[in-house]
């Protein structure tokens, strides 16, 4: 007994759940298997098949096992095509909070692909979806981010949508945002949070100019 | 002095709550999501938790469920949400929230809830 | 100079919040000098005369390369024996006890140290087990250590160290496990033979497939250098590399809360570590 020189796992030791066919059809079948480990490995390997995005999204919605959900989300991030983006955006309307948050997280990783949908999301009739859209803006490395945020705080009637946008303006805002921030303060004069957040953003923007 | 953990992914919200609570004499620590909150309370549990709903990695509901199963001294939790539907309120209370309130929050309202809950918890 | 760049209080706050969100590293006010100095250094390197310009680069650069460069600068990464020793104390004091209590067979316990760097960590773990884990008489333990860099692996296998790397090794242990070679110390042969070194790229799924069935993984100060997606993917690969109930230790400035929700948080008297749930497969 004692310290022994270890060995890497031999190539013959294939995880059992991985022994079936690893082509698209085999993987799609495995994605619906009973055993969560089989589903997890299938999801991981499906990242190599962009055409599997729809199947991954379907499975994501019914998947109960957290570790499989996580791997499906990672695979969808890797695929990142239009089907994946549209499917993830659809998740923003679900009751399932965990899925909504997970979708936001993935969308934040795919700024270029999300940007074309941004205008439409920021005008959605559901204020929660607009909040999620502003959340996604946070990681968007896109030249229009500030412009979008200014539009939100100037026009959006919902106080919590504006609050989320102001938080972000404190970080990315420039001189152009000052007028909009001042009028936001007037629009929600009775809301201490808006006053606090807008003042903070203004203070930071002014410090930038000094 | 009572210790309060503010859990929210928005830095401005954390700062806002921190200022209100510190002025009232509480000791405040912050976490950016539910997982970080669990990491922090494993080091030293808090007397009250202010919990946002939507956060990356582990949201407010997930945090509360995990907290309520942990073998640590329990404490009251206030869930702060932007959503007003009855089902969200129900989910929050089932997950282990003691109170469910909506944003935006006014300072006096927050303090009243915090002090009220801390008082009840001691009785 | 007229335009001597400086970091204002507001800049510092803004930066601190951003960096915290990205990495989980939170700089206290006392670290202000340390942070400013490094920010100014990167501003000069990227030809930015204002913090505002630099922050825009940091935030909006598509490749994220500047953020990486800054992280590298902010995480002073030294390797020496028994670095972050509390985790080794946790290994022998808590994690292994739990693992052997659960064990239903006498299969060896497997520990993976990645990245190996020049070998201080895996050899340190071996010494810790020999010195502080009496159950080593009843159990076999395998230590595997991996790195992507073949040059550094060669160095690790040689096990030659300067005084600086050995500053935290007490004299009796130095005598017991090292021998003097010129101005350096070499790990004794028996110990060198006890650690298996392999080349692994943690982002490569084939490499990762050949490293599985571990009970404990030490992966310290590596993920911090990855972007969000690679970090999450690597954490998922580690999840598969661990036995159910297995543990993973990250570096002190790394938190799983920024990476993946797959693992449970476990508080032991010596340290907080992450665990693959027992019921997971």
Question: Can you offer a commentary on this structure?
Answer:
The complex is a heterotrimer of chains A (210), B (123) and C (281). Chain A is mainly alpha-helical. Chain A folds into two domains: 17-109, Leucine-rich Repeat Variant (Alpha Horseshoe), CATH 1.25.10.10; 114-210, Alpha Horseshoe (Serine Threonine Protein Phosphatase 5, Tetratricopeptide repeat). Chain A has twelve helices and one strand. Chain A has helices at residues 24-30, 36-46, 53-62, 66-79, 82-91, 97-109, 111-122, 127-137, 145-155, 159-172, 178-187, 192-209, and one strand at 2-5. In chain A, helix 1 runs antiparallel to helix 2 (36-46), helix 6 (97-109) packs parallel to helix 8 and helix 9 packs antiparallel against helix 10 (159-172). Chain B has a five-stranded parallel sheet with strand order 2-1-3-4-5, sandwiched between helices. Chain B is 48% helix and 20% strand. Chain B has one domain: Rossmann fold, CATH 3.40.50.2300. Chain B has five helices and five strands. Chain B is an alpha/beta fold. With 281 residues, chain C is α/β, with parallel strands linked by helices. Chain C folds into two domains: 9-74, Chemotaxis Receptor Methyltransferase Cher, domain 1 (Orthogonal Bundle); 85-275, Vaccinia Virus protein VP39 (Rossmann fold), CATH 3.40.50. Chain C is 43% helix and 18% strand. The radius of gyration of chain C is 21 Å and the shape is globular. The mean pLDDT of chain C is 90. Chains in contact: A-B, A-C, B-C. The A-C interface holds A 1-11, 13, 15, 35-37, 40, 44, 66-67, 70-71, 74, 77-78, 109, 112, 141-142, 170-172, 203-204, 207-208, 210 and C 8-11, 13-14, 17-18, 50-52, 59-62, 108, 110, 126, 129-130, 136-144, 191, 193-196, 198, 205, 209-213, 228-229, 232-233, 236, 239-240, 260-262, 280-281. Strand 1 of chain A pairs parallel with strand 2 (140-147) of chain C. Chain B: The modification 4-aspartylphosphate is found at residue 52. Chain B: This is Two-component system response regulator. Chain B: InterPro entries: Bact_response_regulator, CheY-like_superfamily, Sig_transdc_resp-reg_receiver. Chain B: It holds the Pfam family Response_reg. Chain B: Keywords: Phosphoprotein. Chain C: It comes from Lamprobacter modestohalophilus.
